[in-house]
Amino acid sequence: MSLTDQEFRVRKLRTCFASVDVENKGYITTDDFKETARRFVVYGKLDKKQGKAITKAIQDISDNVGIKEGDKMTLEQYLAGAVKLCEDPLGPDYTRPLMRVLFDAVDVNHDGVISTEEFRLYFKCIGINEAHA
Hints:
Layout: H1 5-20, E1 27-28, H2 30-43, H3 48-64, E2 73-74, H4 75-87, H5 91-106, H6 116-125
Antiparallel strand pairs: 1-2
């Protein structure tokens, strides 16, 4: 059985939500996004410029899915905001810069290729156990 594009997207978005909700609270906050950015900076040993770029990119994600400081966003609310963003014709304008920043943060040796070890680093940064990666 193959997944439709929508089913595949929702599956990936659920994984994204789970990676931000590292304490398994059932909701995410802007603090969870900030922690995700912090892990990229620390584990990826990013310099100040890269750290600012990844922090801004991850903040943009939380802004674009509609989470506000002090709010608690459930999985259903996250999916609604994220699916809407994915279906927005300008969606690629939001996501392309993020993907570039994420790639650069994970490509620690800056060779333009994500090695197996660098891929493991990515999973560590997003809070997914290497055994599940």
